[in-house]
Amino acid sequence: MTEEEFAELAAGHALHALSVDDEARYAAALLAHPEWQAIADDDQDAVAVLAAGAGSVAPPESIRANLMAQIAAMPQERSPEPDWAAFAPAPLGDDGAPLTEQRPRRRWGRALFALAACLVLIVGIGVGVSAITAQVNRPLSVVALDEVRAAEDVASASVQLDSGAEATAYWSGSLATAVLVTKGLEELDSSRTYELWVLRGDTPIPAGVFQSTGDEVAALLNEPMREGDVIAVTVEDAGGSPTGQPTSDPVIVIPTA
Amino acid sequence: MRVMEAEWGMLDAMVIDGVEVDENGPASDIAADLLVRTADGDQAAFAELYDMLSPRVFGLILRVLVNRSQSEEVLQEVFLEVWQSAGRFAPNKGQGRTWILTIAHRRAVDRVRASQSSTDRDIKAGFKDIGIAHDSVAEQVELSIEGEKVVAALTELPDAQREAIVLAYYGGYSQSEIAALLGTPLGTIKTRMRDGLSRLRHTLGVTA
To answer: Cβ of A46 and B16 within 8 Å?
Structure first.
C-alpha cells in the first residue's frame, strides 16, 4: 500500500465511514507502517474539530442526575495489564544478539497486511448465528459463546481461508469477551498448537491456545476484548509461543472494529 | 447560509478558546486533567467533565441521529463509557475533548446505522446538507465561534468534497452508502474525503 492510499483510508477511518474490510486494511497498514500514525492522528484531530460545527445543545437535566447515580455503583476498568511480553526473554538473532523489539512486530505487521489484503470478509455485524453449540466440544468456550450470542451488542465477522476452512469471531463489547469458531481448520500433530492473539495497536497479546479437530471448534480468548482489537491465530509449538510474541505468520486475521 | 450569532457563556469561552484554539503555546487541557482524575474514580471530576462537555457532545449526537430520545440514550452511553474507560485515555497522545468527541461520534454513527434505514436518512440528510450546521434542528442550538469557523471552512470547500464530508460526519453515512446515494464510484468518494479533510486541516489550522 502506498502512503497515498493509506491517507485515503485514514480520512475515512477518522470520519467513521470505512467498510469493515477497509477498516481491516487500515488496521493492517498501520501495523506494517507505524510511521504513518502521524497521518492518522492529523485526520483524527481535524475530524474532532468538525464536532463544533454541530453546535451545542443543552441536554435535559435528568440525564445528569441519572448518570451520577449510575456511575456511583459502576466499576471502572482497571489500568492496562502489565506488558508481559516485555518481561519475556528476548529472542536472539542469528548473530546471537537480542533482536530489537521492532523486528518481530514489524515482520508480523507486514505478514498481517498481506494476509488481510487477500482474505475475504464474509459477514458484517449482528447476523443471525446458526446452531453450532451442539457440535462444539469445549464446554467453557461454549458457555462463553452462548453468553456472547445472547448479549445485546453481539457482533460477528467471518473469514474464509484458502484451504476452505472458515473462521468466525463472535464478540460483545459489553462483556469484553470474544469467541472464535473455526470450521475445517487443519488438525495439527501434538507438537504444535494454534495460538490466539489479540492485536491491540501494534502489540500482539497472547490469548490462549487451542486444537482443531478439523470439524467445528470454539475457542474462548482469555484476553478481555477492547474496541478496535484484531483477533489473530498463529501456529506455534505445543504450549504456545515461549517468548510471548508470535513466531510465525498468522493463518487467521479478523478485525473487530 | 444562515449562521446563528454565537452566544458566549463562561463555559464556551473557557472550553473552546482556552483549550484548543489557543495557538500561542500548549494550553492546559482541562478535559484531559478531568479524565485523569475520573480514571481514579473521582466522581466530582466526572461531573465537571459532564457539565463542561455534555452540550457539545449532545449537539453532535443530535446532529447525527436527529431523533431526540435516541440521542439522549446515546449521550448516556457515551458518558458511561467515559466513566468506565477513562483509564484508557493517554494524555500524551491527544486531547481530552477529542477523545470524548471521538467516542460520541462513533456511538452516534453506530446507532444511526443500526436503527434507521438509509431511506429515512436520505430525507434527513437532504435537509442537513442545505444548512451545514444546524438549521434543521432549530431548537436551542448554539454555535460557538469555533463552530462558525468550521462552517465557514466547510463552505469554502469544493461542493463535491463538502458533500462527502458532511454526509459522512454529520449524516453518519459510510463511504459505500455515500457512493450509492450519489451514484459516484467509491474510489472517487474516498479521494474527495481525503482531499476535503486535508484542505479543512489547513483552513482550520489543525496541525500535528
So the answer is: no
